[in-house]
Specification:
194 residues, mainly alpha, two-stranded parallel ribbon, 6 helices
Length: 194
């Protein structure tokens, strides 16, 4: 058989032997019951750029700076109050009996613990307020990315930080998202309890 196909030693020429082999019909696509899946169209967005440049984040940074200054001033005031109380306690050490001094020292230690507790609570409140504002920004950014993607027919949007290579910058929707995000959410109010 090999001699026939290759044309060695057979009576038929190679062309005739190949012509005798029935040609295979092209493969037909397999029919399926499910509808044809849509083509995935991918867009890219630079999340880090959006977070650095959007006006809402700029407003959050200003509020963070203001709140940090207030917190540091409050902390400094409390530390100064405690240093003064400690100095007064030290000056009374020789004037008071041991029992009275121990009672005053215990009161001072409770004051220190209370100040620390209040400062920690204030720090927790600040952290929670900024976390809530950050979540609001993130949710709005995701919503705007979805709107821009749908309007442009993109079915998948991935962060630019996950891209190793991209041939066409036209797929980058970052600037469009930034413009719309700035228009719909120009600032965020960080709700810090008093």
């Amino acid at each position: 058989m090999a001699a026939l196909v290759l044309g060695f030693g057979g009576t038929q020429p190679v062309d005739a032997a190949l012509a005798a082999v029935p040609a295979k019909a092209p493969a037909k696509p397999v029919a399926s019951d499910s509808p044809q899946k849509p083509v995935t169209s991918i867009a890219v967005v630079d999340v880090q750029f959006l977070l650095e440049k959007c006006s809402a984040m700029q407003s959050m940074k200003r509020q963070d700076s203001e709140q940090t200054q207030k917190f540091q001033a409050e902390q400094s005031q409390q530390e100064q109050f405690l240093r003064q109380a400690e100095k007064e306690l030290a000056s009374q050490r020789t004037k008071l009996g041991q029992e009275d001094f121990d009672a005053k020292r215990k009161d001072f230690e409770q004051q220190v613990a209370e100040v620390q507790r209040r400062l920690q609570e204030r720090k927790r409140q600040l952290d929670n307020a900024f976390a809530a504002a950050s979540a609001q920004l993130r949710d709005n950014m995701v919503r705007v990315v979805g709107e821009v993607a749908r309007e442009n027919g993109f079915t998948l949007v991935i962060p630019r930080s996950n891209i190793i290579y991209m041939a066409d910058d036209a797929l980058d929707i970052t600037n469009t998202v930034l413009s719309r995000l700035n228009a719909t959410l120009p600032q965020i109010t960080v709700n810090v309890p008093n």
